[in-house]
Specification:
Oligomer: single chain
Structural class: mainly alpha
Number of helices: 4
Order of helices and strands: HHEHEH
Largest sheet: 2 strands, parallel
CATH architecture: 3-Layer(aba) Sandwich
CATH superfamily: Vaccinia Virus protein VP39
CATH class: Alpha Beta
Number of strands: 2
Length: 96
């Protein structure tokens, strides 16, 4: 099954290192972000298929109305959630 093939590939792959890996990998991120900046507007809702650990989602967080990421790898979703939650500051309650 193709789904299982994809999942098994990413078990040993460190997606988070991609943005800081080889020059080719770094260049991919730079140019992809440039393309996203052309098309994503503050009023848009974005669905990212294959969101991995949330690199683009974190980048897009303040550039669009909402961002939802989907990935086959449970490991990536766990890391994406951890990455996203580490960026969210707790709300200050007005009664405190």
């Amino acid at each position: 099954m193709e789904k299982e093939k994809v999942k098994s590939y990413y078990i040993g792959y460190e997606e988070e290192k991609r943005a800081f890996g080889t020059r080719t990998e770094q260049t991919e991120f730079i140019y992809t972000k440039k393309l996203l900046d052309r098309y994503i507007t503050p009023s848009m809702s974005v669905l990212e298929l294959g969101c991995a650990t949330g690199y683009y989602g974190i980048y897009l967080a303040d550039k669009c109305k909402s961002h939802n990421g989907v990935d086959l790898s449970e490991k990536h979703i766990v890391r994406e959630t951890r990455n996203r939650n580490s960026l969210i500051k707790p709300l200050k309650k007005p009664w405190n």
